[in-house]
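User: Reviewer 2 asked us to show a designed sequence for the structure in our supplementary figure. I'm pasting the structure tokens here. Could you produce the per-position amino acids so we can include them in the response letter?
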């Protein structure tokens, strides 16, 4: 049918719920930053984000175990309620002018408890809500809406901050989580087969065994994680180059917008492509990311850097869609959330280090040299992935009739 995966009832509830919370979070992202800066300094803002990231990293493994034990839609309901309460309380702190930065730090730590559960749970829930023939399309649709609101959300959030208060945007975000919880509660997935009750650490180890038993998986995660370390040069040094060479925040916002538009286009492409070797195509799709850092290193004009960001956005959307689809087809359903937790942790654990050292490294060896070093690291990891026989052995799933 014309609606594709959205014709399937349970996926439709999941799609609507996650779209609404993504929109709310994009509104709140810019609001939270300005709320903290109104009360404190850039250092305080860094502490807020650092606490959120640290708590998410700690919780993600726990979330994977819980999501493999319990109905995944109900796990997401609980996570949404925690996030909604945390954002509602943060909005009250901002609007009421009480508690200060310390209260926001604590509440965003609570928010991260819910957020840390989301990725491993959602990765396992998508294939439970859609037929196998529409799995890749479902993943692409999830990415499409995230990318679309990623472009529009910050702009709307900025307008709310300017016209009213950061607290209003945070309050809107909190409502989005309660609406999401109500929608996800409507999903009906088959009950799990009775399983022997084991300890938390035993189940965590079982997930690790599943993760480690697949060379294509653990090797790709390690190598993509190292490649992400190289991407941090673009994140940290891009605004520096924009300030010094391009004219400041205006040109840089144009570059970021171009990347967001590219991501939307990439998600639309990912709905339809069917590569015969999806993991090879997934790796190749990541390669345009390097164009961003190359264009910065060459001090290219704004239009050229924006064009590279557009191509990178297309590539990363296709990359993520293919990765999640291969993952969901190759990893047993009973362990998908636990294995996804290791995937998430391994892919992004090095990024805080990269974000911390990119600035000092550029001071020591130069901005251009740091960017080229990141490009070299990215390409070294991608080419290494393409040398792995297990990556080439992953073939596209045979056609399955839509039911």
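Assistant: Here is a per-position design you can include in the supplement:
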């Amino acid at each position: 049918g014309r609606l594709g995966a959205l014709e399937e009832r349970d996926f439709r509830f999941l799609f609507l719920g996650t779209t609404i919370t993504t929109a709310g979070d994009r509104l709140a992202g810019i609001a939270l930053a300005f709320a903290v800066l109104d009360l404190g300094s850039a250092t305080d803002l860094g502490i807020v984000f650092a606490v959120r990231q640290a708590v998410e990293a700690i919780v993600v493994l726990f979330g994977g175990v819980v999501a493999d034990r319990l109905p995944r839609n109900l796990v997401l309901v609980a996570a949404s309620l925690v996030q909604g309460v945390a954002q509602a309380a943060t909005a009250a702190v901002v609007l009421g002018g009480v508690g200060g930065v310390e209260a926001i730090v604590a509440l965003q730590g609570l928010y991260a408890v819910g957020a840390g559960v989301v990725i491993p749970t959602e990765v396992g829930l998508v294939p439970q809500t859609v037929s196998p023939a529409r799995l890749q399309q479902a993943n692409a649709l999830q990415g499409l809406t995230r990318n679309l609101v990623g472009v529009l959300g910050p702009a709307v959030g900025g307008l709310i901050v300017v016209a009213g208060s950061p607290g209003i945007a945070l309050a809107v975000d909190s409502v989005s989580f309660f609406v999401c919880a109500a929608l996800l509660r409507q999903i009906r997935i088959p009950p799990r087969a009775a399983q022997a009750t084991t300890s938390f650490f035993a189940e965590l180890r079982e997930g690790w065994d599943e993760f480690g038993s697949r060379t294509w998986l653990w090797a790709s995660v390690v190598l993509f994680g190292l490649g992400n370390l190289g991407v941090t040069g673009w994140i940290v040094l891009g605004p520096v180059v924009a300030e010094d060479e391009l004219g400041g925040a205006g040109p840089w916002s144009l570059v970021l917008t171009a990347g967001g538009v590219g991501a939307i286009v990439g998600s639309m492409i990912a709905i339809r492509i069917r590569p015969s070797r999806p993991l090879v195509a997934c790796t190749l799709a990541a390669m345009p990311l390097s164009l961003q850092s190359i264009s910065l290193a060459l001090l290219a004009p704004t239009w050229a850097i924006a064009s590279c960001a557009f191509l990178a956005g297309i590539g990363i959307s296709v990359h993520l869609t293919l990765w999640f689809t291969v993952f969901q087809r190759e990893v047993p359903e009973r362990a998908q959330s636990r294995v996804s937790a290791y995937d998430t942790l391994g892919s992004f654990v090095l990024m805080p280090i990269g974000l911390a050292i990119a600035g000092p490294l550029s001071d020591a060896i130069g901005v251009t040299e740091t960017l080229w070093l990141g490009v070299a690291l990215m390409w070294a990891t991608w080419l290494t992935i393409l040398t792995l026989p297990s990556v080439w052995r992953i073939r596209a799933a045979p056609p399955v009739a839509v039911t």
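For the response letter, you might also mention the following. The chain has a mean pLDDT of 85. Residues 30 and 304 are 27 Å apart (CA to CA).
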